[in-house]
Prior knowledge:
Helix content is about 40%, strand content about 30%. The chain has seven helices and seven strands, in the order αααββββαβαβαβα. The strands form two sheets. The chain has a five-stranded mixed β-sheet with strand order 5-2-3-6-7. A hairpin with a 5-residue loop joins strand 2 (about 60-70) and strand 3. Helix 1 crosses helix 2. It starts with a helix and ends with a helix. The model has no long low-confidence stretch (mean pLDDT about 95).
Amino acid sequence: MIEKLIADLLKELGEDSRREGLERTPERVAKALRYLTSGYQQDVHEVLNGALFVEDYDEIVLVKDIDFATLCEHHLIPFFGKCHIAYLPGKKIVGLSKLPRLVEVFSRRLQVQERLTTQIAQTLQEVLQPRGVAVVIEARHLCMMMRGVEKQNSKAVTSAMLGAFRDR
């Protein structure tokens, strides 16, 4: 179904989806879109629950510079950047590799940066019940770089601070 829609879109743009360079484009775009939105088929709790551990640790846990790319829900154009996640454990910690996996699940959905930031923070708050969670995302938006204001060097920075990170 996506393939037909892409072929129709190409036609509406003035192209012939049957010409040599485009003949397999509808299939490739459909495959890419299925991959880029595969987060809808993933359960974040399943991603995290297999790696929760009780540990007597009361200092900050920080994983920074987690690369991500996602599609802006307003234009279906990518935005990409780095996510930094910190938490102050309560009674539980999570395997460090699960934090990038959590970013991956939410970034494989149509997104806005603000929602992506809060979804990551709220999920960690719910699952770990830590004393605090902090998520900061810095991203470059192709919808700002290639169209509209066309500012190639701008970055958007968003944050979500919960618990002890918000209260102090």
